[in-house]
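Sorry, I am new here, but would you mind making up a protein's amino acid sequence and the tokens describing how it folds?
***
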Amino acid sequence: MATTHTWKFFRAGGFDQVKLETGADLASLDQLDQKLWVALACPTRGLEFDNRTLDLIDADKDGRVRAPEVIAAAKWATSLLKNPDDLVKGSPSLALAAINDATPEGKQILASAKQILANLGKTDAATIDLADTADTAKIFAATNFNGDGVIPADAASDDATKAVIGEIIATFGAEADRSGKPGIGQAKFDAFFAEAEAHSNWWKQAEGDKTILPLGEATAAAAAAVKVVKTKVDDFFARCRLAAFDVRAIAALNREEKEYLALAAKDLTITSAEIAALPLAQIAAHKALPLREGVNPAWAAALANLQAAAIKPLLGDHPVLTEADWSALTAKLAPFEAWATGKVGAKVEALGLKRIREILAGAAKEKITTLIARDKALEPEANAIAAVEKLIRFNRDLHTLCVNFVSFKNFYSRRTPAIFQAGRLFLDQRSCDLCLTVEDAGRHATMAGLAGAYLAYVDCVRKATGEKLSIVAIFSQGDDDNLMVGRNGIFYDRKGRDFDATITKIIANPISLRQAFWSPYKKFVRMIDEQVAKRAAAADSVVSANLSATAAGTVSATPAAPPKSKIDTGTLAAIGLVLTTLMGALGTIFAKILGLEWWQIPLAFVAIILAISLPSVIIAWLKLHKRNLGPILDANGWAVNAKAKMNVPFGTSLTQIAILPPGSQRDLVDPFAEKKKPWGLYVTLLVIAGILFLALGWYLGKLDGSLPQKFKSTSVLGSGAPAYVAPAITPPVLSTNAVLAK
């Protein structure tokens, strides 16, 4: 991509990062090669950043902010400010004079900002801040028209229209107007009048039709009375027909006496379910249903209502109801039932047909339509008010986001915490500054483990309020001797609130080179401790079992002889084997060392130490120089675009170890201190042993090869030196004359 903007970079974390120091830098983000961006996406939640601002940048509302959305936000904000450098200041207030009114959008935003301040009684204010835009109800309290398309009842100028708006709200529910008042929008308005029209037309199908409404408006009451008893009346006549078929069934059809005995044993009421389940009247062949006398008391009221609402108006005043009369009654009401099944407009039915038709015949529909249109006409101004809030937020937050997204300046400068740093953890005489919130520790650890850092997952809770959160903390100083699952500490979030913190999971990696150097020896000591503990536990179990067996055997009158103590031969054999092997190895090593030149002996000890510690140190060095922030953030939903290293110096700054303040006074006398070991005596004895070791080596002649002639043991001790070797006697060499003379 061709660029016309000149960029500046700084190096941190092992890679080059762009400097964003001016408004021009922000406005030109589209010209910066995205391969040079530190991050390409981040989540809108779980960050120490205003969620509302992130939501405004997140144009597609998918819960993630991506590079194109950051570019669009920067372009929009810089175009609406006369001096884009104001964005770098991060001011929470926006000066009205700073808004660029040379563009139509800027002019509208400026007018809206002034209108907001005027509505709040701040006509003379020169700046506007988020507090001014936060309470939309207060902003629009003085007007009924605010561009949201929702009309409160107060928007109408006449009582009739206000009444209709109130009835629509009562029927379909209210929508919240920007002023906070209940109102109706276009959708509810259309639905109400559609229901009202449909209900009125449905009634027109039946009006004047005697087959559908044989009793006029009273037909519905008659049909309802029939519906209540229909199942029981059908049951009665069916039983009577069965009794006519076979008289032997009459006793069973009227229920047996034992069922009444069971009912009599209970506390009954006339409306009891057991009574209601009995037939409407006594069953007999070809019997008519009595309507007054001899009826089931649980159904007496329903039968009386049936006679008054349906039988008398449609069939005449009959004291009994024959099966033929029942069939005629249901036939007369069948057209009404069919018509009622197709009912429409049930939501407005409670208003009554008369009121519905009054509303339809009146002018309320046209007046409310006009009010909604008048309100919608102000929508651009209302949207501009939302744009004012957006511009104020971008003026305050956009630069902060960019220096935590396009670059990681805040993180690597160590002056201001990065937006992904959740707070500070205090635990094991250390404070950890790199703490991130996590939702699922198990899933997070799968990716974060690739970072090469020592990670501790911690559950945090404020018991007073019940607030909970989970974090991951990076330990980058000290050692891991006292870090384990279950350790407790305190976590302070960015707001200063304290949480009880407990380690729940650890991903172990080297913390420092010093820790790596001593790690093999600590592991060896721990192994010995564990083996001794296991052996002691096993021996204790054996002793306990023997004591239990002995106690169980003391039931005889004659005291049994105490059991002979048994020696754990396996333990002794194991200990003996370990000691023998260890002593043999040490003997071999020291024999080799004693066979060296005197100046080579210290080098041999150094070589042994390096042989043990150097592999661990090398591995730690490689891992510490590969520690990468990327996997930790990626596991939280980021798309980190760079290898953001945390080398040893920088990593050390992320974890602080407890140190005494400058000028502190220390009282070194501990009344409960353990008895000190005589280290001075040990050192003296060690020096003496070393001198004796060297003296023995000199006496044995082991050092003669490295000493001048006059200091060699054979020169000082002469023939008494163990290394002294007597010179060989060489026979005299005879001359030729001497040989001839012999």
Summary: The first strand starts at residue 9 and ends at 12.
